[in-house]
């Protein structure tokens, strides 16, 4: 079938009902962010992958002990909680006023908050912590500052914990922020040897009240946290749809966060994708030349163990935050992060073509940074990766998350990614050779046109930009070899010829020879 028929078949086969149902099943298991529940979630995903006829499904146990290193990351310790609350005891007119209670919302307690038996504490504002030598039996109210920013300075005071009213969307006064990564020393999470602190998250409205009370005088609270930080495990779930060859494309999606958008809908969406691809194999004659693997685990940390071992993956597609409504979040468009300059991939051209032809939402392309959703493209691992996101924006980790879900938008992204994956895995990349050459030239000429706007640079910099970009394009084109397609040497020579003609033209122009620092030079310094 042609591309249009493939896309329409995928649209017709996709079951939104199953997708939404499984999303809520995962979310309901993970909404309290307990590791004991994460194990249930992992087993659910394993069974659903098997039901979708994915082969070789397995759970890989990873240590969560605060000291084991996978790749560049120290794994955090496991964490469970039963209940937590924080209520005012003084001033007397606010006695028993509840600032935080997990019965109201689980986000009231920070991930990996230290346990404490019911105890009285005095509250001090973060601006006043240097006024006292020792803050034993104090909790520090850090106001609208993320705890990761002020954690170390608070630790040095000997205070026993933090109260935070941080929110990316403080105008939503009764919503709460989920405090997940709040360490400044070793990535997102505290290691085993770091000091354990109590940490509560309260709504902006309660933060305003607490601040006013502190300004008036002494504030005391009663706090209790029934939690457990311990040596445990976290699971990676994987399975594949085998191809004729050992090489594989992988879909990655992270589990273990208590949001529908981030990322229960991504994992459940991929399980439905697996089901429909197998249906296409059984009923529509689709035969993958290259395997399609599914990886579900802890964001970034949980994937490192897999990638530091031998594997057959040649390309990755990360699915995270695809259902955040771009109108409700105010982001207005979907962001497409394609392969990095250091590790370019020809499939970017094919994916952009699919976006132009089939995608009904506004989108923008951005050059990929190295972060949690694209880290496998770093040359230490060396796998090009695509990441498309409808960003939660100011609602990231906010309890308002469930109000910004857009299933239609998420579906459209999944249709597109599945079509793209099927085109790559079909082993027919050679059919697109002429189209890829056209896209390569188009990108080159577009870049050369932009160079005309670099009025503040010199001939030296312009020449180096041309040389760099031509090498980048050739490398991007030659990535066809990952899918066993031999690049056309004649076309590579043609890119060199365009580059040479441009350089000759630059030499004739009356450009300043004095070397000036470009914006990139200044940034590098």
Features:
single chain, about 525 residues, eight-stranded mixed beta sheet, 17 strands
Structure report:
With 525 residues, the protein is α/β, with parallel strands linked by helices. The chain contains 14 helices and 17 strands. An eight-stranded mixed beta sheet has the order 1-11-13-12-14-17-15-16, with helices on both faces. Helix 3 packs parallel to helix 6 and helix 6 crosses helix 10. The N and C termini lie far apart (52 Å). The model has no long low-confidence stretch (mean pLDDT 94).
Indicate the overall shape.
globular
Number of DSSP helical runs = 14
| Radius of gyration, CA atoms, in whole angstroms | 26 Å
- Uncertain runs: none
Distance between the termini: 52 Å
Q: Proportion of β residues?
A: 15-25%
Structural class: alpha/beta
Strand order within the widest sheet? Answer: 1-11-13-12-14-17-15-16
Q: Roughly what percent helix?
A: 25-40%
Task: Tell me, rounded to a whole number, the average pLDDT.
Answer: 94
Per DSSP E runs of 2 or more residues, the count of β-strands stands at: 17
Biggest sheet overview: 8 strands, mixed
In short:
The chain has 525 residues and is of the alpha/beta class. Helix content is 37%, strand content 22%. The chain contains 14 helices and 17 strands.
């Amino acid at each position: 079938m042609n591309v249009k028929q493939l896309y329409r078949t995928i649209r017709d086969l996709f079951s939104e009902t199953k997708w939404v149902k499984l999303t809520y099943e995962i979310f309901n298991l993970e909404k309290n962010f307990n590791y004991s529940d994460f194990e249930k979630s992992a087993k659910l995903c394993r069974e659903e992958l098997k039901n979708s006829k994915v082969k070789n499904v397995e759970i890989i146990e990873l240590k969560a002990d605060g000291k084991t290193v996978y790749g560049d990351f120290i794994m955090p310790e496991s964490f469970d909680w039963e209940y937590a609350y924080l209520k005012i005891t003084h001033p007397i007119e606010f006695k028993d006023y509840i600032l935080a209670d997990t019965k109201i919302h689980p986000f009231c307690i920070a991930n990996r908050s230290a346990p404490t038996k019911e105890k009285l504490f005095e509250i001090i504002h973060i601006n006043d912590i240097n006024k006292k030598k020792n803050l034993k039996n104090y909790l520090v109210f850090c106001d609208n500052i993320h705890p990761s920013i002020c954690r170390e300075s608070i630790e040095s005071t000997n205070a026993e914990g933090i109260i935070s009213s941080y929110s990316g969307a403080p105008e939503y006064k009764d919503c709460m922020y989920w405090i997940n990564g709040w360490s400044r020393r070793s990535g997102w999470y505290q290691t085993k040897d770091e000091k354990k602190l109590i940490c509560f998250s309260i709504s902006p409205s309660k933060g305003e009240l607490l601040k006013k009370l502190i300004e008036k005088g002494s504030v005391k609270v009663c706090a209790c946290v029934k939690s457990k930080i311990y040596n445990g495990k976290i699971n990676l779930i994987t399975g594949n749809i085998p191809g004729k060859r050992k090489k594989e494309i992988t879909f990655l999606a992270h589990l273990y966060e208590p949001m529908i958008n981030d990322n229960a809908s991504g994992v459940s969406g991929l399980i439905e994708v697996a089901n429909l691809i197998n249906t296409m194999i059984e009923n529509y004659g689709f035969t993958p030349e290259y395997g399609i693997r599914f990886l579900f685990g802890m964001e970034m940390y949980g994937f490192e163990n897999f990638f530091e071992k031998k594997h057959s993956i040649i390309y990755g597609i990360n699915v995270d935050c695809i259902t955040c409504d771009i109108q409700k979040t105010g982001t207005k468009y979907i962001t497409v992060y394609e392969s990095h300059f250091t590790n370019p991939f020809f499939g970017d051209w094919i994916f952009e073509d699919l976006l132009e032809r089939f995608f009904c939402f506004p989108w923008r392309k951005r050059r990929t940074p190295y972060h949690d959703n694209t880290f496998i493209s770093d040359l230490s691992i060396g796998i090009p990766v695509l990441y498309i996101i409808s960003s939660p924006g100011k609602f990231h980790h906010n309890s308002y998350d469930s109000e910004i879900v857009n299933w239609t938008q998420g579906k459209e992204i999944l249709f597109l990614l599945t079509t793209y994956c099927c085109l790559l895995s079909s082993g027919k990349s050679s059919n697109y050779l002429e189209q890829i050459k056209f896209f390569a030239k188009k990108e080159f000429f577009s870049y050369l046109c932009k160079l005309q706007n670099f009025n503040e640079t010199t001939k030296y910099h312009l020449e180096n930009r041309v040389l760099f970009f031509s090498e980048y394009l050739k490398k991007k084109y030659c990535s066809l070899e990952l899918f066993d397609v031999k690049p056309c040497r004649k076309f590579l020579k043609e890119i060199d010829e365009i580059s040479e003609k441009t350089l000759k033209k630059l030499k004739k122009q009356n450009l300043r020879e004095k070397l000036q620092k470009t914006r990139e030079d200044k940034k590098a310094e």
